[in-house]
Amino acid sequence: MQGAILAGGLGKRLRPLSEIVPKPLLFVGGKPMLDHALSAFEALGLREVAIVASPFTREAITSHLNNVDNNIDIRVLLQEKPLGTADAVSVLENFVDDEVLVVSSDVTLNVPAMVSLVKFHREKSPLASILGVKVKDPSKYGVLLVNGATLTGVVEKPKEFLGDLVNSGIYVLSKYAVASAKDSPISVRGEKEITDTFVSLSKSGLVMVLPDNGSWWHDVGDFRNLLMANQYYLEFGLDQKGYVRGGDIKRVGKGTIIGPSFVADADLIEGEVGPYASLDSGAKIGFGCHVRNTVMMQGSGVLPAYSVRNAILAPGALATSEVHGTQEAPALIMPSGSKIRQRMLLFTKAGRLAFIRKI
Ligand code: GDD
Ligand code: MG
Questions:
Q1: Same domain, yes or no, for 58 and 164?
Q2: I need a surface site. Which of 61, 187, 199, 284 has the fewest CB within 10 A?
């Protein structure tokens, strides 16, 4: 079995952050989303992985991979135009031998759940197996309609309640299913969707769904979910230097790290960090600061004595005041030179971006 990562989306709901960091490379829970996927594949013992990139993401992904060290043979496949998830899957046609484990680069992953999916696929041997997850707000996802374990339909982003089991973006596909993806119709959003491929294959009764309680699953499609995903990965545990477990407190030079947190450069910490802080390389905290439930991307910083909570600092951004977002409406700090440097994102009850207020 081979692995594949879909990494070509535009990340519209994560703008303006996704304009400077492509969604698959967003630093969440101690490493870029793409690296979480590669770690999961490595843990599953997969040795051949394709990353399907678009012209928009390819360069950044390729240069990022130069600094990634693992035991996987990684191939970056280019999709000429990002025409949707089914179009991205069809790029895999010559890569796949028998079957492929496909994941979206914008969802959190859980290795035991992926092991169960592979086992399920081997037992049932359908054309495709989908990992279904239960969520509170199914209207943002593809709702799976099932009869027992057999898929009977998928409704993308339904306006009315049809069920709470949704498509996680994690699949095992047979070579036949991969080859069928190119025949998907163009959807209302002008793309070929993998869920439409599943609907047409389901007519044969050979697309199966493995349900999961989904407690670990987050779609990193917006800022609120980015912070949720950060919490999940930090809580679940990271096998890398710089990780401090939940319940642990680590003193480093002039600073303190409260777990669960991840700090790449502990010698740049002079204040208190955590819980739920993820600091990428070069992230710097001044004396007397307190940073919690926050993602600080590469080279970002907080000036001395300020407290930052529920926030996302883009690469190179500097917090020059108190920054207090909420879990529902995280604050986003962009680097100087961006059109708007500090933004508080406010969400409607449904979790959609309602408007942006300058702070
Ligand atoms: N290479 C490539 N090319 N990747 C793509 C393209 C494309 O044209 N379009 C999307 N992707 C990647 C995105 O980067 C993301 O990792 C994944 O495919 C899913 O695409 P999104 O655009 O984020 O889709 P969505 O979130 O609206 O909905 C999809 O994902 C949900 C779960 O997160 C659907 O498949 C839903 O059914 C599903 O519930
Ligand atoms: Mg998505």
A1: yes
A2: 187
pTM to 2 decimals? Answer: 0.94
Distance CA 325, CA 342 (A): 11
- Residue 246 phi, psi (nearest 5): -55, 140
Residues contacting 215, CB < 8 A, separation 6+: none
Complete DSSP assignment for 6-66: EE----GGGTTHHHHS-GGG-EETTEEHHHHHHHHHHHTT--EEEEEE-TTTHHHHHHHHT
Among 193, 212, 231, give the residue marking a domain's end: 212
Ligand 1 atom nearest 10 alpha carbon:
14
Binned at pLDDT 50, 70 and 90, residue 339 comes out as: low
Summarised one tens digit per residue, pLDDT across range 59-103 is 999 999 998 888 899 999 999 888 999 999 999 999 999 999 999
d(CA 271, ligand 2 centre) in Å: 35
For residue 128, the model assigns a pLDDT of: 98
C-alpha of residue 102 to centroid of ligand 1, in Å: 12
- Verify that 201 and 266 share a domain, yes or no: no
* Helix runs in the chain, H state only: 17-20, 33-43, 58-65, 85-90, 111-124, 175-180, 194-202, 223-236
Question: Are 278 and 207 members of one domain?
Answer: no
Containing structural domain, residue 345: 241-358
245 shares a domain with 207: no
The strand pair at 31-32 and 207-212 is best described as unpaired
Q: Are residues 272 and 193 in the same domain?
A: no
Whether residues 71 and 189 fall in one domain? yes
CB 86 within 8 A of CB 197: yes
Pocket of ligand 1 (CB under 6 A): 6-9, 23, 52, 54, 79, 82-85, 87-88, 104-107, 141-142, 156, 166-167, 169, 194-195, 219, 221
Same domain, 152 and 295: no
